[in-house]
Amino acid sequence: MTKTVYTTHSPEETIALAQKIGAKLKAGDVIAYLGDLGAGKTTFTRGLAAGMGLPDLVTSPTFALVHTYGTEDRMLCHFDMYRIEGEEELETTGFYDYPMEECVFAIEWSENITSALPENTIRITLERLGDEERKITIEGDERFADTGT
User: Fold this and answer.
1) Are 104 and 25 in contact (CB under 8 A)?
2) 68 vs 100: CA distance, rounded Å
């Protein structure tokens, strides 16, 4: 398993890093975010969407549980599992109704559904180092080892 650590110094740098990663994503990729409130998970997802070539305005799915961006040809499903407590509750959210093999999944609060994640999940941990500085750790796929900032 590959593990790469980056440091960004502004939301713009975080988005730029995520754009480079988004450009390398393909249908079936699952991104599992780890990080506290305000760590930058939604900001990172904005960059992923831009890197995937999606023009949509990315917002937090906190109250909707999921937002989808793009079209059938290139789709990003952005989930928020903050209020989900295990796989039983996950069944009631419609999570399994989204075609994982046809989309890129980006899952905030993924630690709440760990048992439902595929083995090849890409884990991205965002840590606040300051008001705008973030430590971003990417684990699980060598495609992102040479991304750089």
Assistant:
1) yes
2) 12
Instruction: Show the domain range for 127.
Output: 3-142
CATH of the domain at 134: 3.40.50.300
Task: Classify residue 90: in a domain, yes or no.
Answer: yes
If you compute the radius of gyration of the chain from its CA atoms, what whole number of angstroms results?
Answer: 14
Share of residues in the chain with pLDDT > 70 (%): 94
Write out the DSSP string of the chain: --EEEEEESSHHHHHHHHHHHHTT--TT-EEEEE--TTSSHHHHHHHHHHHTT--------TTTSEEEEEETTEEEEEEE-TT--SHHHHHTTTGGGS-GGGSEEEEETGGGGGGGS-TTPEEEEEEESSSS-EEEEEES-GGGTT---
- Taking only the tens place, the pLDDT of each residue in 13-53 is 999 999 999 999 999 999 999 998 889 899 999 999 999 99
How many domains, in total, are found in the chain?
1
Domain assignment present for residue 148? The answer is no
Which pTM does this prediction carry? 0.89
